[in-house]
UniProtKB/TrEMBL annotation:
Protein's name in the database: NitT/TauT family transport system ATP-binding protein
A Pfam family assignment: ABC_tran
Record domain ABC transporter: where: 2-233
Provenance organism: Salibacterium halotolerans
GO molecular function terms listed in the Swiss-Prot or TrEMBL record: ATP binding; ATP hydrolysis activity
Keywords for the protein's UniProt record, in alphabetical order: ATP-binding, Nucleotide-binding, Transport
Top-level division of the source organism's lineage: Bacteria
InterPro entries named among the record's database cross-references: AAA+_ATPase (IPR003593), ABC_transporter-like_ATP-bd (IPR003439), ABC_transporter-like_CS (IPR017871), ABC_transporter_ATP-bind (IPR050166), P-loop_NTPase (IPR027417)
Amino acid sequence: MLALQEIEKIYFTDEHAVRAVTDISLTVEDGEFVSFIGPSGCGKTTLLSMIAGLLDPTSGTIFMNDRKLEGYSKETGYMLQQDYLFPWLTIRQNVELGLVITGMLTSETSSKTMELLRQLGLGDKADAFPSELSGGMRQRAALVRMLAPEPSLLLLDEPFSALDYQTKLRLEDLVSITLKQQRKTAVLVTHDLSEAIAMSDRIVLFESNPGTIRHTFNVPEELRTRSPFETRNHPSFHSYFQKIWEELENVETQHQDST
């Protein structure tokens, strides 16, 4: 589904060249959920932006479905920490915005989008404005907006971090179930290790200065085949958390020493 080959990103200023990420090579299989974790400044969001086509790599190549990625692709959906719903548009107009921009808005795609809105518990909010919705409802609307054009790859940049804990847990389950039902491929950037374990098939740990892949963890089958809430309560969750946490702590210590 997705292949990154020797990706490097360098930011140039008048005086310096800063290497954000270097020598990043990885693949994501069709239908797989992969999470990126690591210390702040290790290039997770930069890498996600390159996969989205919002930034060009300085060197290296990104392939999606065996085609070289050059710029933004309609096959990609992006969900951010903030919902970025336009306050002057209704929820219906907001969630159909991607369809309008891509020229995909028809009576059929509009009907499918409204059905998805109903499935996510917002069927009675289609004519409401964003200010009338809670934070969790707004993120659900942002999820519908992302899914409406039916992208094959979903990029999630800390989409639950601004929510209260209870809402966050509910949305994790909702997003996970929805993506599995639609057989979507997803890449999540998160600082929450519990979230990464609960939602992922694989977890990629990055180290910084510059950002490189430190280790890739395959989430055990008994965890990845459950819903995020069930995974968090599974007997083996804690020991697996500790295993990755120790490696993450080593990376954080190295990051602090280098800065």
